[in-house]
Write a structure and sequence with these properties.
single chain; 265 residues; alpha/beta; Cobalt-precorrin-4 Transmethylase, domain 1; Methyltransferase, Cobalt-precorrin-4 Transmethylase, Domain 2; 2 domains; six-stranded mixed β-sheet; five-stranded parallel β-sheet; 9 helices; 11 strands; 29% helix
């Protein structure tokens, strides 16, 4: 326990699920935690790294009953003001679609010291599972990380994003994958490579590769749902599964992709 008024909050990025992807710094911070606020998508075994901490689950998932954001912010402030080290654990990287901005602002307004530990976002884990570079210089000049759900429930300008020619890494898009792919097709060829990766970076990872014109139907047929990353762009065509058969689609496990890469080597 911290002493006096030295309480603080650390936002820890837990990565996509595999505890081996945690940073050493994240593990050290968890070991020193007095209170852990745990997101729903975080590997529950992470609590073994915080043996002395009180664990409070504050799940937030689209389409499901969630802990109110304001309540989470009050919890962090309350325990920090008691002189405790509060570790707020978020899936992926806390600074990417993790509401970290809201929490940082609330803690700073309250005068609470806050630190950040970065981690592996699911888009990177998805790319690793596919064996592709999101910024392959033969195909694009960058990658765009975008959420399919804006705060006002509207959608991004998909055609404008497609027109950039960059790889699109789409978060939280499975509930509207059909409509967003249909809009992207207005600006991109239907044969543009695409992939859907569910539970990226975890033991339960599953992937579908195909074309933009067909990927939504293939993902639904394979039973893929949230949480999943949708990747679109010519760089995705470098995936091992495209090298086998670019005109077809397939469902692949994490172990299968490793074997594919070994054969190509």
């Amino acid at each position: 326990m911290m002493t006096g008024n030295e309480g603080k909050v650390t936002l820890v990025s837990a990565g996509p699920g595999d505890l081996d992807l945690l940073t050493l710094k994240a593990a050290k911070v968890l070991a020193s935690a007095d209170v852990v606020l745990l997101d729903d998508l975080v590997n529950p075994e992470i609590v073994t790294l915080a043996p002395q901490a009180r664990v409070i689950r504050v799940g937030k998932r689209g389409g499901c009953r969630s802990t109110p954001q304001a309540f989470i912010e009050r919890l962090m402030q309350r325990y920090a003001r008691r002189g405790l080290h509060v570790v707020r654990v978020k899936g992926g990287d806390a600074l990417l679609f993790g509401r970290a901005g809201e929490e940082l602002a609330a803690l700073r307004r309250a005068g609470v010291t806050v630190e950040i530990v970065n981690g592996v976002s699911s888009a990177f884990a998805a790319a690793a599972g596919l064996g592709v570079s999101l910024t392959h210089r033969d195909h694009c000049q960058g990658v765009i990380f975008v959420t399919a759900h804006l705060r006002d429930h509207s959608e991004p300008d998909w055609q404008a994003l497609a027109a950039t020619g960059m790889t699109l890494a789409i978060y939280m898009g499975m509930s509207r994958i059909e409509s967003l792919c249909a809009t992207l097709v207005d600006a991109l060829p239907t044969a543009t490579p695409a992939a859907v990766v569910q539970w990226a970076g975890s033991a339960n990872e599953r992937r579908v590769t195909g074309t933009l014109g067909a990927i939504a139907a293939h993902a639904r047929a394979a039973g893929l749902g949230s949480p999943a990353i949708i990747l679109v762009g010519n760089a995705i065509g470098e995936a091992a599964s495209f090298a086998i058969s670019p005109a077809s689609f397939g469902v692949h496990s994490r172990e299968a992709s490793i074997e594919d890469l070994r054969r190509r080597a």
